[in-house]
Write a structure and sequence with these properties.
By secondary structure, this protein is of the alpha/beta class. The protein has a domain of 252 residues: Amidase signature (AS) domain (Amidase signature (AS) enzymes). It has 15 helices and ten strands. The protein has a ten-stranded mixed sheet, with helices on both faces. Strand 1, helix 4 and strand 2 form a beta-alpha-beta unit. Helix 2 packs antiparallel against helix 3, helix 9 packs across helix 11 and helix 9 packs across helix 12. The longest helix is centred in the C-terminal third of the chain and has 24 residues. Glutamine binds next to loops. The site of glutamine (GLN) has 13 residues, from loops. Belongs to the amidase family. GatA subfamily.
Amino acid sequence: MKDLIYLSYSEIKKKLNDGSLSSKDLTSAYLKRIEETDSKIKAFLELDKTKILKQADESDKRRKEGKLLSEFDGIPIGIKDNICITGEITSCSSKILENFRSPYDATVITRLKEKGFVLFPRLNMDEFAMGSSTENSAFQTSKNPFDPERIPGGSSGGSAAAVAASMLPVSLGSDTGGSIRQPASLCGIWGLKPTYGRVSRYGLVAYASSLDQIGPFSNDMEGISDLLQILSGLDPKDQTTAKVNPFESNSVVEIDWKGKKIGVMKTEEFNFSEDVNTRYLEVLKSLESKGATLVPLDFSLLKFAIPVYYLIATAECSSNLSRFDGIRYGLRKEGSGKLDDLYSDSRTAGFGKEVKRRILLGTFSLSSGYYDAYYGKAQKARVLIRKQYAEFFKSVDVIVQPTSPTTAFKVGEKTKDPIQMYQADILTTSVNLAGVPAINCPAGLDQNGLPIGIQLTTSHFDESKLLGYAKSLASLELCKISLPKEIP
Ligand code: GLN
């Protein structure tokens, strides 16, 4: 029973479908693991065992009756706390939404339910997805399963930690500037940010609408491609979803590196930690030995990615979060009886420090007199970054970079200095600004036994190739990783 939790996603899928495993046994094994382990990891904000087991029982019943909804029926999946599920609390790890129950399902949830997945809400995150460590959650800081004194990354830290601690095989997160890839990197698992417009954002609580995408975490590559197939596609409820050929999981095949052109960074220009730098160079060397050609790219625009991202993301969040005012949504404080006080008292009590900082920054850069100098300029720079990626893909097939400049840092190490925390996203934010897809692939451990991640990027809607390269990378000896069985 205990070993069930250490199975990969693809082994689980196989066993469920050949009848050698029931969803109930599998689900119960995960629930037991969560019970034993989550006091150390703090990935879950809430766990309703009865509701979860009921879904597993229903799946087993369908299997017995030959009425399976899909080949994914009965697979457990974790859900980040900013994705709406009918009747469930969706708090975004914020006090302002602590008691908010969603009256509807996000489109991704509808799609998972139609296939018979067993949903495990609610995974911890940075408040409103703003952060890189889950330390901005109003309720708890999640811990890294490789070393619980360290952070799991963020903002989808709970979703990543749950998979890395073998509490689930797959989970959903959201990525606005790196919140899937960075925690996947720090936790040693796969995490994909799809092309902007590939996956519906309907029912994802908005942070920065022009950057947000929902995507999967998984303990193997098959989980990533299966989930992308299930989650993606046109949605009339989200006008930004694109009319493109649907993504097919079985279109993903390992790609031969021979003759491929790989875009790489000149590492001297960036401040990667020594272990990350060394592993990156080893990976590149190994790809070169398989016949790929390395093409150094000019990433000088990257130095603008963080300021541009933080101007655009904060501007959009200041507008998106204006609905949480104590009247339309959220916590209400009505001390003085005056309307203006109700707004400000509710928002003062409901939002945490980082969220307030970003609302202020965003409101400032959008205000008349400053708009052209800040927000307008950031939009122009965003266009340049987008063009730069289009230019890159004229000369390379795939870009290979580290995902994070360092491995997991200690809890509390960066909380005093927001600018230093923002630097954790130096390699991920430009991808969201350009709208292209990117994936984190595990690439072994550093000297302290902490995971290192490699980010692969391709052009818009080229996920079949992206995942093909990721699959090939996963088969390199250098990139093999074992998730911790016992949490230290
Ligand atoms: N860490 C980045 C931020 O704080 C990215 C967050 C995200 O992708 N949701 O905004």
